[in-house]
Amino acid sequence: MLTAIIVVIQVLACLALIFLILMHSGKGGGLSDMFGGSMGSAAAGSTVVEKNLDRITVTVAVIFAFTNLILILRLQ
Q: Is the pLDDT of residue 72 over 90?
């Protein structure tokens, strides 16, 4: 039961990571341009939206890594 819950959290974190990474703007712009993420980046460098996106991405990546380690230890 606990393993199934951890697997669900892992899959949700994986999908969230894919979405969040695609939201980041690269050298040529990303999907975040659709939501106004690049409007301030030309003038101010990194905007509040980009900083928050970075923080959320790091948090989800830590959750993904943590659930990955838990699953490795539980399935040994």
A: yes
- Long-range CB contact pairs, 8-17, < 8 A, 24+: 9/63, 9/67, 10/64, 10/67, 10/68, 10/71, 13/60, 13/63, 13/64, 13/67, 14/64, 16/60, 17/57, 17/60, 17/61, 17/64
How far apart, in whole angstroms, are the C-alpha atoms of residue 53 and residue 15? 15
**pLDDT tens-digit series, residues 33-47:** 666 655 555 555 568
| Token pair of 33 as six digits | 């341009």
Say which residues have a Cβ less than 8 Å from residue 44's Cβ, sequence separation at least 6.
Answer: none
Tokens of 51: 């900083």
